[in-house]
């Protein structure tokens, strides 16, 4: 029966045919089918070499339909046929997607069999759960990274941003989270990633054990902007499928910035006016529509709800933490983790700047003892940072200030606590226990 249903899943009884009128930059205009179409519908463009390219409706201009393609435009010109088959847009997600690597259209990239045979398609675009009906944040979630568990404690269903410039260790930190975080399923979206790094990430960083509980969605930097834009939507739809089963899902997206760059390419190609640093207004309207879909789901009759815990990387241009995308994302998410190039250059990884990072679920999710412990550690870090130049120059003499004396004494152990090899495994309880041992206080 499954094989029988799979035959008809992508079969259409009807087909409408139009023609390509114009190709300008990344945009293709088609006539003859406009009254039948709406935004988001997909057509097939027939190349002159008998190849086919999938395209999506992104706008209308009078009697013309504006399309952008999921593949190269080679072989498409005026008069090329454009067919619309009336099939619904979506992904046939099922449990068999675990352990697989797919592209944003749900096609396997790992050389294995086709996915989701005979399953009903899940829409890639939908509204987030009703704000008054969705569950509240769940219990604390162990991320497996000491510095994050202790100083930016995360709860199930929370959304955190990882903000950093290029080459500061975002991808390595992401791989640690994918392997070590306490979750049922991990969904990983690699948006605009370097092609050579995809296999390294899957085999070396994620590993066989991590891949077994994961679905990886890949759109490399050489793919068209529509494909890079689609990757986060596809990953979110996959995460929602597992969330609706009541599971705890970890969604990792690298990166939101490349998603916005793809949106910018699409918007400018459609004639949208550039605004902030060349980003059209639609980019900042689209961001919350995507990011708000992550979080707790709606409880079932038994009061149980699945959740999507989202960690989204933001590639800040020139290490400017206030650039437009970073500023917009920071206002939407439930906390932010800042990776500092200066710390990375000193050889400490993960290069988390504790003093500039925060989780909006803290202090409510930690015990009073744990909050007191992290406040004390932050105070030590702030004091040492203020006096670092004087200490290095030898201008400060021990005994001058008790707080500075304590900072000088505790910093070597704190530095070791903040460092973690990518293969080291940590727990939430272990993180607070290790931090408490530095100050000689009882374990919280």
Automatic annotation (TrEMBL):
Q: Which UniProt keywords apply?
A: ATP synthesis, ATP-binding, Bacterial flagellum biogenesis, Bacterial flagellum protein export, Cytoplasm, Hydrogen ion transport, Ion transport, Nucleotide-binding, Protein transport, Translocase, Transport
Q: Which InterPro entries does the UniProt record give? A: AAA+_ATPase, ATPase_a/bsu_AS, ATPase_alpha/beta_chains, ATPase_F1/V1/A1_a/bsu_N, ATPase_F1/V1/A1_a/bsu_nucl-bd, ATPase_T3SS_FliI/YscN, FliI_clade3, P-loop_NTPase
Output the GO biological process annotations, alphabetical, semicolon-separated. Answer: bacterial-type flagellum organization; protein secretion by the type III secretion system
Q: Where does it mainly reside?
A: cytoplasm
This entry's Gene Ontology molecular function terms read: ATP binding; ATP hydrolysis activity; protein-exporting ATPase activity; proton-transporting ATP synthase activity, rotational mechanism
- The protein in question is named Flagellum-specific ATP synthase
Biological function:
Probable catalytic subunit of a protein translocase for flagellum-specific export, or a proton translocase involved in local circuits at the flagellum.
Q: Which family does it belong to?
A: Belongs to the ATPase alpha/beta chains family.
* Domain of life where this protein originates: Bacteria
Q: Where in the cell is it found?
A: Cytoplasm
Q: List residues of the AAA+ ATPase domain.
A: 156-344
Q: Which Pfam families match?
A: ATP-synt_ab (PF00006), ATP-synt_ab_N (PF02874), T3SS_ATPase_C (PF18269)
Gene Ontology cellular-component terms listed: bacterial-type flagellum; cytoplasm; type III protein secretion system complex
Can you state which reaction this protein catalyses? ATP + H2O + cellular proteinSide 1 = ADP + phosphate + cellular proteinSide 2
Q: Does the UniProt entry include the keyword Transport?
A: yes
EC numbers, comma separated: 7.1.2.2
- Entries under SMART domains matching the protein: AAA
Source organism of the structure: Acidomonas methanolica NBRC 104435
């Amino acid at each position: 029966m499954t094989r029988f249903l799979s035959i008809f899943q992508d079969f259409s009884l009807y087909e409408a045919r139009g023609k390509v009128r114009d190709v300008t930059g990344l945009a293709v205009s088609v006539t003859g089918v406009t009254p039948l179409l709406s935004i988001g519908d997909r057509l097939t463009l027939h190349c002159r070499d008998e190849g086919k390219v999938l395209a999506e409706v992104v706008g209308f201009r009078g009697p013309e339909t504006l399309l952008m393609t999921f593949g190269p435009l080679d072989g498409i010109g005026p008069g090329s046929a454009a067919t619309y088959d009336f099939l619904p847009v979506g992904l046939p997600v099922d449990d068999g997607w675990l352990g697989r690597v797919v592209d944003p259209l749900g096609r396997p990239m790992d050389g294995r069999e086709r996915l989701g045979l005979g399953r009903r398609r899940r829409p890639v675009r939908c509204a987030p759960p009703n704000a008054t009906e969705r569950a509240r944040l769940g219990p604390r979630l162990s991320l497996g990274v000491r510095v994050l568990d202790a100083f930016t404690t995360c709860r199930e269903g929370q959304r955190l941003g990882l903000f950093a410039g290029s080459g500061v260790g975002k991808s390595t930190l992401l791989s640690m989270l994918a392997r070590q975080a306490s979750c049922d399923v991990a969904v990983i979206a690699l948006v605009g990633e370097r092609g050579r790094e995809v296999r390294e990430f899957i085999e070396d960083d994620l590993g066989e054990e991590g891949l077994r509980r994961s679905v990886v969605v890949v759109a490399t930097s050489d793919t068209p902007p529509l494909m890079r834009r689609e990757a986060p939507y596809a990953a979110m739809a996959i995460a929602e499928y597992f969330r609706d089963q009541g599971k705890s899902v970890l969604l990792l997206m690298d990166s939101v910035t490349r998603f916005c760059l793809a949106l910018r390419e699409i918007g400018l190609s459609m004639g949208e006016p550039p605004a902030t640093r060349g980003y059209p207004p639609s980019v900042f309207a689209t961001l919350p529509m995507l990011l708000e879909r992550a979080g707790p789901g709606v409880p079932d009759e038994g009061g149980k709800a699945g959740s999507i815990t989202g960690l989204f990387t933001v590639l800040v241009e020139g290490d400017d933490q206030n650039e437009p995308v970073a500023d917009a994302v920071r206002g939407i998410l439930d906390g932010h983790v800042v990776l500092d190039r200066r710390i990375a250059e000193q050889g400490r990884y993960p290069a988390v700047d504790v003093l500039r990072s925060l989780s909006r679920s803290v202090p409510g999710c930690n015990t009073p003892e744990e909050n007191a412990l992290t406040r004390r550690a932050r105070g030590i870090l702030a004091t040492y940072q203020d006096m670092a130049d004087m200490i290095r120059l030898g201008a400060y003499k021990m005994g001058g200030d008790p707080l500075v004396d304590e900072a000088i004494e505790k910093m070597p152990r704190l530095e070791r606590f903040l460092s973690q090899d990518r293969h080291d495994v940590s727990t939430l309880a272990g993180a607070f226990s290790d931090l408490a041992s530095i100050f000689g206080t009882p374990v919280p």
